[in-house]
Amino acid sequence: MNKFEAVLLFSPDLNSANIKKELDSFKADINSRKGKIINEENWGLRDLSYNIKKFKKAFYNYIQIEADGNIIKDLNNKLRQSETLIRFLFVKVEKHQELPTKLNNEKE
User: Which of 26, 45, 64, 85 has CB atoms 3.0–4.6 Å from 38's, for a disulfide?
Assistant: First the structure.
């Protein structure tokens, strides 16, 4: 099993119930394919460095995953079709970062 860290950016137009529903679906996809969620953090609504799809802000979620690379490839294809997700990134790592992250501790 490989280690990955994912950051998901959701549309600022969503409410917390819709974001939770999307995250639960994402986690269920990983678990159904024999992947494992190690940890997660909700970084909340933050400013984007640049506009994405005319949005200036997004809800950030950080997730640590252990899974086979093929699972991540399949998830990439599924996430590209999501209308609520404005950007996502998977990064393969040797060792998961300790939580809480610095970004989670940052005061706005």
Answer: 64
